[in-house]
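anyone seen this seq b4? input:
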Amino acid sequence: MRWSFRSVTPTLFASAMRMSIAIILGFGLATANVSVVINAVVALAVTYLPAVLRRDWGLRLSPGLTVIVTLAVFLHAVGMLGLYEDVWWYDHLTHTLSAAIVAAVGYAGTRALDLYSDAVSFPPRFLSLFLLLFTLALGVLWEVLEFLARIGAMSLGVEAVLVQYGLEDTILDLVFDTVGAILVALFGTQRLSELATELHDRLS
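predicted toks r here
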């Protein structure tokens, strides 16, 4: 049987990344690296989120969106092995991808509410601005969590689970969060319309 890249389905790709995260978790346990273990556990849990949404809420994420969600947490888990420190652009990549997912969730939820309720109406321009502000707000919250995690780890004398590299890093993180939100606003809204419709049906 001849193998080709075309035979790699999104489901198979997502499963391969989930297995890789499990391997990273095993490595973290073997080396007693708490930050790697915790981030890998969280990443592994997120990979099962699409299946949980489908089972408990009847929401079916598209194969492409499932792969993107899995890819985001996979890259973060890999980054904890040292890529965040060794590759200058790696943090920018993961922040852009994660912000795109946050923006996608914000768009799907807001669009579903728009379809559900006659009391609210979100014009396209307002929705684009909302996506940007929503993503940036969660980005700021994440940066605050990183700062608190660093302070807490320093006070306890342990390695931080979330790492912050200073004010310049925080500003760059927010810049690439903005990039992720803009990418969704420009190219992702049509692809998310099906998810928004499913959310609307659940609200109904």
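The chain has two domains: 1-83, 88-204. The mean pLDDT is 83. kinda curious what u guys think
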